[in-house]
């Protein structure tokens, strides 16, 4: 006898997480399940989250989004990576660019040849072998041209900057057109099943109006408060503040200035860092900081003193705690988005974590049996990704040589998770990075941050010595020149947007 299928899916919350879940599920489930989003205008959304990583293209493709239309509707710009300023030492500047570094030869990775030639004083800075970085410096952008064979132009990797509230609005329109129902109202509490099948599962949420909304599967997208996963099911939270001490942010938009840069910038300050996210109509800025190290007033003054344009509002405070929910899926509640955990936006990973959770939910979509084995696998996957991204974010803080504040000294001297220490040791030894179990950030991302923050390996891969020195030098030079020529060929970022996806001005 087969287990009955679920029928009613209730998505609690209509921020980016809620509407991404609604858009994906309404696409995949094709009207065979009832999907309802419940959101409260009075409570609103967190209202930040403007920078993404390239995997979002896959999400947008699956839900059938046309790139140019989406860019127009969300005032979007393109993103080739993140420029980090003042992270290793004050005055340092490097980029974690998307896509490849150089061009691999047959035996070992490109970076190993570069390591060898650098020791011999015959290599240029690593960034000159990255099309993402060189194009960013020239404010150029174009999507990859697959007709260009193995040219670097055929492999350009990119993501987007967009207005998060417009993205949620866009996804809402799309979801409602696919049959998703929406209820506006404030949820006061949830009720749970007593005796019978699935005792303890949430069976309904109750609104301030008294309306009761029943469901079989609840997706908790209620943001930091974790209305169902925490307030109702008391799942518990694993706190990572001892590794990532920033606990507050101030966000403020400012007027645009030219040029329209195709990258996010992250500038480290005395006790945190500042993001700069260029959109078509404004620049999004925010200061992420540790309240144990600086006051709110100092944080606000630092933020406002480092804007490129005139502020368009007062800085808006946001408080957070870094860490993850002990279980992302418990009983019949799946937490997606901020309700499942939080990692600061240093590598723009939160929207990706939403996408990844929704994908996993589709892969492990339940029937009324709610298999414990499937749920455990979902939770294992979620934990793995959270922890690996956490390690990558910690890397930026830990690998610093700054001596200008206790914040940076404490970060440099803290002990880090074993999984990160292994990566650091491996790189320090022979410049190697091992990507475990399809973790989010590939070797090339780790290398750019480790090199950018001045971790120089003691040795390089012995097989990088197999090729003649002069030939290796010429090979590196060849790669560099090809990249420079490709960048010359690329259009200006603002011109590309003006031609293909300029937002309508109000
Ligand atoms: C400072 C900061 C910067 C960030 N920058 C980035 C970035 O650059 N890139 C990135 O990928 N991510 C970023 N993020 C994360 C990103 O903002 C979130 O992942 C994303 O917005 C999803 O939020 P959410 O939908 O989970 O929660 P929210 O936006 O908080 O939405 C919660 C929803 O639940 C509803 N709700 C809550 N309680 C109730 C109730 N009682 N009744 C009815 N409805 C209720 C609310 O009305 C709302 O609709 C950032 C986060 C912060 C804090």
Automatic annotation (TrEMBL):
Q: Which domain of life is it from?
A: Bacteria
Q: Which GO terms describe its molecular function?
A: oxidoreductase activity
Q: Which residues form a coiled coil?
A: none
Species: Pelomonas parva
Does Ribonucleoprotein show up as a keyword for this record?
no
InterPro entries, sorted: FAD/NAD-bd_sf, Flavin-dep_Halogenase_NPB, Flavin_halogenase, Trp_halogen
Q: Which Pfam families match?
A: Trp_halogenase
What is the E.C. number? 1.14.19.-
Q: Tell me the protein's name.
A: Tryptophan halogenase family protein
Give the signal peptide range: none
Q: Does the keyword Zinc apply?
A: no
What SUPFAM superfamilies does this protein map onto? FAD/NAD(P)-binding domain
Which Gene3D superfamilies has this protein been placed in?
Answer: FAD/NAD(P)-binding domain
Give the record's keywords alphabetically: Oxidoreductase
The protein's enzyme class = oxidoreductase
């Amino acid at each position: 006898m087969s287990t009955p299928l679920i029928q009613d899916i209730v998505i609690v919350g209509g921020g980016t997480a809620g509407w991404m879940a609604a858009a994906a599920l309404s696409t995949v489930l094709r009207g065979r399940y009832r999907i309802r989003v419940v959101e409260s205008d009075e409570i609103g959304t967190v209202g930040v989250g403007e920078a993404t990583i390239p995997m979002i293209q896959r999400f947008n493709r699956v839900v059938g989004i046309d790139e140019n239309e989406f860019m127009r509707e969300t005032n979007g710009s393109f993103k080739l990576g993140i420029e980090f300023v003042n992270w290793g030492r004050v005055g340092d500047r490097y980029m974690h660019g998307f896509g490849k570094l150089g061009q691999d030869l047959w035996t070992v990775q490109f970076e190993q040849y570069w390591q060898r030639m650098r020791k011999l004083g015959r290599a240029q800075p690593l960034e000159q072998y990255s099309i993402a970085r060189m194009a960013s410096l020239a404010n150029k952008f174009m999507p990859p041209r697959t007709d260009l064979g193995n040219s670097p132009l055929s492999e350009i990797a990119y993501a987007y900057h967009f207005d998060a509230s417009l993205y949620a609005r866009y996804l809402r329109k799309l979801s409602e057109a696919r049959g998703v129902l929406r209820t506006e109202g404030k949820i006061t509490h949830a009720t749970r099943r007593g005796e019978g099948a699935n005792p303890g599962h949430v069976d309904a949420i109750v609104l301030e109006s008294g309306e009761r909304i029943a469901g079989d599967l609840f997706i908790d997208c209620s943001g930091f408060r974790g209305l169902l996963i925490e307030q109702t099911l008391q799942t518990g939270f694993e706190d990572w503040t001892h590794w990532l001490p920033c606990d507050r942010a101030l966000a403020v938009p400012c007027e645009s200035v030219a040029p329209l840069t195709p990258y996010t910038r992250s500038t480290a300050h005395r006790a945190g860092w500042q993001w700069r996210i260029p959109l078509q109509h404004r620049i999004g800025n925010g200061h992420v900081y540790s309240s144990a190290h600086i006051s709110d007033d100092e944080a606000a003054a630092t933020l406002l003193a480092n804007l490129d344009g005139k502020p368009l509002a007062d800085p808006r405070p946001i408080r957070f705690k870094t860490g993850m929910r002990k279980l992302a899926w418990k009983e019949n509640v799946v937490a997606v988005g901020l309700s499942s955990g939080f990692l600061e936006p240093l590598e723009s990973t939160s929207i990706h974590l939403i996408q990844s959770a929704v994908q996993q939910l589709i892969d492990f979509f339940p029937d009324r049996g709610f298999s414990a084995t499937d749920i455990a696998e979902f939770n294992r996957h979620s934990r793995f990704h959270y922890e690996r991204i956490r390690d990558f974010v910690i890397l930026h803080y830990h690998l610093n040589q700054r001596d200008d504040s206790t914040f940076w000294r404490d970060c440099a001297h803290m002990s880090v998770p074993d999984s990160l220490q292994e990566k650091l040791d491996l790189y320090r030894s022979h410049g190697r990075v091992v990507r475990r179990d399809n973790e989010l950030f590939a070797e090339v991302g780790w290398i750019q941050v480790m090199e950018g923050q001045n971790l120089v390996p003691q040795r390089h891969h012995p097989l990088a010595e197999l090729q003649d020195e002069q030939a290796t030098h010429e090979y590196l030079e060849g790669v560099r020149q090809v990249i420079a020529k490709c960048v010359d060929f690329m259009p200006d970022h603002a011109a590309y947007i003006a031609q293909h996806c300029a937002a309508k001005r109000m």
